[in-house]
Every structure is written in structure tokens, then in C-alpha cells.
Amino acid sequence: MAYAILALGIDLLWGYTGILSLGQGIFFGLGAYCMGMYLMLSIGGEGAYQSDLPDFMVWNQVQELPFFWKPFESFAFSMLGIVLVPALCAFVFGFLTFRSRIKGVYFSIITQALALTVWLLFNQNSMNLGGTNGLTDFKSILNFPLSDISTQRMLFVVTGICLVLAFILCRYITQSRLGKVLIAIRDNEGRIRFSGYSASQYKLFVFVISAVLAGIAGALYVPQVGIITPGQIGVLPSIEMIVWVAVGGRGTLIGAILGAIGVNWARSFLTSNYPDLWLYFLGALFVGVVLYFPKGMWEVSGRIKNLFSRRAKKQPVIVN
Question: Is the pTM of this model over 0.70?
Fold first, then answer.
């Protein structure tokens, strides 16, 4: 369900506005690291080295908690950071690119390069973010042990509520006048600009909303999975996120949710039972969807429904 929240943001950005971003893993990672930093600091002296510093800082001989870590001792600030940090980064990047009217494949390439840059940056031990090992070994959240079944159920319920709220928000945006403008930008941006609308402002708005949803998804992901590493925010994860929406059906919202849940269920099943086949399956799935079902699973379900309705109409009517 956390992945589904992320997929909704991508669908809003790509499916409705036509902006293909290959760097959404960045914003997912920013939200995840904000939550991970809070969880690491809440361990306190419970770590292996009985220190107020996270264990990886003790290994790297860091003597004092870095200044950017200190605010994350507060749960309220951490929740604020989960929203504001991805939003601010998306605003700065989006403002610079959309103002320059960079779009299409050029925008996709830039976001992919940015994802690679962030991945390389987070891998460095000098960043004091755990390096390649990332942040892990979380113990509790708000003094509730993460290993307890009741805490896991609470996180499950919270994630479900956030998914419903994210869907309502995206549905409201797409059904409003704003949604019509976003679709018009996707179909013919030049006409929108000549009609007096500032396409760059609308694109910047939806880009920030998508980043916020990705950050929230990352924050919900971390306490349930128990780890966040740079490997989950690089180029390959960002491309895989696009596959979820493509498979589910972009421009449908429901399809994005189904794609995220379905593809990740398949990954869990195949990596557990047939680990060598997962990447081949993912590649074949994406190619097949692009070639034969451009609207994803939503189009498949529509074709099946039409097939049954046609058969029902062809059945002869017997009059007694």
C-alpha cells in the first residue's frame, strides 16, 4: 500500500500531465531517510555500542551528532520533514527545469541523471547517512516496539488510511478544472500556453504533489520493512516505479494502485520461488504492456468485460 501511494503520485504526474520522471525514487528516499533518522535516534543507548550516536557513526569514529540530524529527535519535526524536504527539493528542481521549458525525453534524462547523482551521494560515508548499508536495526516508533504484532497492525492501518486519503486527493485534482488543464497540457501544451495558461506553474504544482506523495510512501515503508539504503532510491528503482503505473494503467488512478500491488506481489512470489526469473519477468511484462496493452491492466479488464457483454448480446432469445 505504501508503494501504491507512490504510484498514485507518478500516475498524476505521468498519466494525467504527461511528465515522465525517472527520478521519483529520490523523493521516496528523502521521505524514507527522514523517517529512518528519527527511528535511529529513538534507539538511544539501546544500540550495540550503548551510545547516543547511531552505530554506524560509532564505527566511522564520529564524535558528535551532525547538526542536520539533531532536529529529527523530534517526531513532529520528522513528520514535517517527510513532507517538506521532498516538496522543497521538487520545487527547486521543477522551477529550474520547467521555467527553461525542458520537457519530454530531455526531462526524463535529467531526472534519471539526478537519481544517479543522489544515489552516488548517499553511498558516501562522509554524508553520515549510513553509506551503502543505509539505516536499519530500528527498535520502536513513539515507544511502540516495531516487533510487536499490534504495532505492525497499527502501521498497516495507518498506511491504508494514507492510501485512501491520497486517492481522494488525486481523484479531486483530476476531476476538477485543474485536472482538465493537466490533461490539456499532456495532450497539447502549446495550445494551453497560447490560451493564456502558465503551463510551467501547473507542471510545477503537480510535480511537487507527486514528490510529497512519494515522500509519505517512503516514510510508511521504512518502519514496516526495517531498512532504507541508497539502492532503493537510485535509477533502477525509479524505472521500476514507472513499470508499476504502466502495467496497472496510467491515467486511471485505480490502475496505478493495482499495478503497484500486483507487480510487487509478483516480485515477492518470484524472488522467493524463482529468483533467477524475476528480472526476465519484469522486462517481458513491461515490453508486453507497452506493445499490446498501452493502458495496462485497466485496458485488459475493459476488453474482457466487452467480450462477455458481446457474447451475452449474441445469445438467442427463446420466446415461449
Answer: yes
